[in-house]
């Protein structure tokens, strides 16, 4: 099955890259990133043009993600919760994805483009969690263009070794990059919640605010008794 899909990208060329990337982004578990790598490798062999491959992959990623967002917004919860094949896995994706997108929706849309699995379901989850469309569209476009450019150029310059490099780097390096980013977010939130240090007993009380004349401002009751 996978070999047939890759042959589609290699034999059909530009349409194959576009369709596979768009389908994966819309929520269909197909190897869209592998199709992009295949197109870039063909470009390194002068069978395709790398600017066209990158432009088509970026456009397909943006269009597919927007389709997935609409599906998720209109009926994503129902589709993920309904009984049938992989019902447990679909409910697990929903239960874990909704709190995650509530906290890190914009960053998840951007960095999810590089993560296997999340790349397929990110748009659905963004729609199912009712993420506003404008920030979704902005971060989705940034992620789609960045992903297509970096993956396409790395595969193009790596030549025949690009496919194996992306497979290894995509699974290990990019996952670790995403985890590092999430850890940084959690550390930042923890720093914001850190309580302010209390004034130790016996410490001098801050001086009251003074008027322009330099005389201390007294409470109203004290002024009345003067």
Question: Can you give a write-up of this model?
Answer:
This protein is mainly α and 226 residues long. It has one domain (2-191). 75% of the residues lie in helices and 0% in strands. The protein contains 9 helices and no strands. It has helices at 2-12, 14-26, 32-44, 50-81, 87-111, 118-128, 133-158, 162-193, 220-225. The mean pLDDT is 75.
Gyration radius, in Å? 26 Å
State the helical fraction: over 70%
How many helical elements?
9
Largest sheet: none
The stretches of 5 or more residues where confidence is low (pLDDT under 50) are none
Mean pLDDT rating? 75
Query: What's the count of strands?
Result: 0
Structural class: mainly alpha
Give the count of structural domains.
1
Please render the helix and strand layout as text.
Elements: H1 2-12, H2 14-26, H3 32-44, H4 50-81, H5 87-111, H6 118-128, H7 133-158, H8 162-193, H9 220-225
Helix pairs in contact: 1-2, 1-3, 2-3, 2-4, 3-4, 3-7, 3-8, 4-6, 4-7, 5-6, 5-7, 7-8
What would a concise description of this structure say?
The protein is mainly α. The mean pLDDT is 75. The chain has nine helices and no strands.
What are the key terms here?
single chain; mainly alpha; 226 residues
